[in-house]
Amino acid sequence: MAVVGSTGGNLFSHGGDDPHRMLAEICRQADAGGFEVTTVQLVAAGASMDSVKDSTPAQLLTLRDGALTVAARGSLAEVNAAAAAHDAQLAAAVSAGEVEALVLVSADPQGVNAATVGAAVAAGLPAAGTGGSSIAAAQALGLNLVAASGTTGSTSTTRAVSYIAGLARHFGTRYRPVLGSAETADATGSPWRRVSVRGIMVGSLPAFIALALILAVGKIPGLDALTPVFDALIAGLPVVVAAVAARRVSGLGEVGLVAGVVAGVLSTAGGIIGGLVGGILAGALVAYLLRWTLARRFPVTTANIVAGGLSGLIAGLVVFLALAPLTNALGEGVKDAIEYLVALNPMLAGALAGLAIWPAIMGGVYHAAILPLVLLEMGEKGHSFFGAVDMVSLVMVSLGITLANVVRPRTSGERALAASGAAVNFGFGTFVEASYPFLFADKRVFAVALGSATLGGLVVGATGTEATAYLPAVVAPFVATDTVGMVLAMLVGVVVPFVAVLLINLRARRAAEA
């Protein structure tokens, strides 16, 4: 199999900033599944692809004699040119039958990786991949994707497992993921360069979804006894955030995780932001204390205890004794500011949020700004205004567009593409990028998306609904503050684009027939 792609935009905060470890995990899982990685073509940029320039430092990582090698180094423009030349060679190998499967890691199917993807389409190669925009583009080209998803909430391990599991299903081979034993400590370099607020917050997303589910179940008559469970979960969220932050920043696995838990327990009074600050401080201290103790010939067991325990204790006490009032006030301030702005004109606030959310996700702003706001709101009260807008104006609008292309596509090939996206939108409340091929193919569809998102957001504001995304469509209304209002908003979000795109497609087909 061949692995192609880049360190990505949103992916950069989910392991893309450590491409060697990311590729090593893919190779490890591939070996467990009986696959051999024979080619690697990965453009590793010095920053997220959401904000890079042609002058951004970058490297081209390839496989030479079984070892990862830097084949080119320079500006992103120069490395892309080298990658394109390598891509032409890989495309020839695909056409010659030397490659039997493809893995796309935030690839560029219409640019740097165009030749390889085109050859894979022609050869009918199975492929697995992640990266919402790139996967949507690959699907539009007709690539046989046996496993595809976005990047949010994933890790290098879970993505690698997803790739190999999909390919193993396709080839009918047995695969048992190898978990937990091969993560090597990475304490090199400054720990501060590993600080990524959006990466930490999104890594903590499963805990926030658990909170939302308990909130929903607690509304069922007779289950109000779960209220203390909700209170316990919301009180424990700072611990989760601190643990994720410390593990990420330290680069030292379990040692950093323990430090984060200790810091998080002491940071709970500071709220989500307190947990974030405590975890970052603990992670940085772990890295420094471990080097300091090992340099003084401490036994490794003692070094781990000192680094993991003392760093968590120091960071936690800093928040507990000094920063908790400030971080708690900051979190409350974010919540109060959103509530104040919504209260000024709920319908206008909802409409503007709905209008802005599609450009935000396409421009890379969503994961950096909007999703952290959703999680901050949820950390304060268990639901979010922006979470409701996310579900209605992104997920439901994408569902409506893809459903219209299932019912009446312009070409037969678009039906399968739309069906897979619609299923993920409805069943999991994510992968809105599935509608990108249809948005980019017709400006009218893009205008429908913006208009429908604005209208759906307006209904969210008018009904005062708060909820969250990343849940099945049938579950979302039950985590909302207003179930009827959420259902109404979701119906507007899905029905309006469905009808509009259906009419656009019918007209396009009649014009083509004429």
TrEMBL record:
Keywords per UniProt: Membrane, Sugar transport, Transmembrane, Transmembrane helix, Transport
GO cellular component: plasma membrane
PTS EIIC type-1 domain sequence ranges: 195-514
Superkingdom: Bacteria
Record-level GO BP terms: phosphoenolpyruvate-dependent sugar phosphotransferase system; trehalose transport
Sample GO molecular function, one term: protein-phosphocysteine-trehalose phosphotransferase system transporter activity
Protein name per its UniProtKB record: PTS sugar transporter
Species name: Georgenia yuyongxinii
